[in-house]
Amino acid sequence: MAKVTIDQNECTGCGLCYNDECPDVFVEGDGGNSALQEKYRKGAPDTGEIPDDKKACAAQAADACPVSAIKVE
Ligand code: SF4
């Protein structure tokens, strides 16, 4: 498992993560900002855990995010 967080103060809602890089993990949330797919959430739409086989995709989205709002650890 890997922990994923999306900083809502940084996210601009560009859609790169949930439309292009990793729609398996990310989805458009309130106001167009990024959120985690519901099944991966832990308590909040922007915090959760993903299985190891989704880690590479989430990391790719984190690298592509223009404001470095996504953390995968
Ligand atoms: S790529 Fe970054 S800025 Fe764009 S929607 Fe995803 S988290 Fe937000």
Distinctive features:
binds iron/sulfur cluster
Topology overview:
Elements: E1 2-6, H1 16-21, E2 26-28, E3 34-36, E4 41-44, E5 47-50, H2 55-64, E6 70-72
Antiparallel strand pairs: 1-5, 1-6, 2-3, 4-5
The structure holds iron/sulfur cluster.
Question: Would you give an account of this structure?
Answer:
The structure is a single chain. This protein is α+β, with helices and mostly antiparallel strands and 73 residues long. It has one domain (2-72): Alpha-Beta Plaits. Helices cover 22% and strands 30% of the residues. The strands form 2 sheets. The protein has a 4-stranded antiparallel sheet with strand order 4-5-1-6, with helices on one face. Strand 4 and strand 5 (47-50) form a beta hairpin. It is globular. The mean pLDDT is 98. Iron/sulfur cluster binds at residues 6, 11-17, 33-34, 65-67, 69-70.
Outline type: globular
Rg for CA atoms: 10 Å
Largest sheet: 4 strands, antiparallel
Number of domain units: 1
Written as H for each helix and E for each strand, in order along the chain, the element string is EHEEEEHE
Structural class label: alpha+beta
Going across the biggest sheet, name each strand in turn: 4-5-1-6
Q: How widely separated are the two ends? A: 9 Å
Under the CATH scheme, which architecture would be assigned?
2-Layer Sandwich
Count every beta strand, where a strand is a DSSP E run of 2 or more residues.
6
Poorly predicted regions are none
Helix count?
A: 2
The mean pLDDT is 98
CATH class: Alpha Beta
Q: CATH topology, anyone? A: Alpha-Beta Plaits
Strand content: 25-35%
Query: Which ions and ligands are bound to the chains?
Result: iron/sulfur cluster
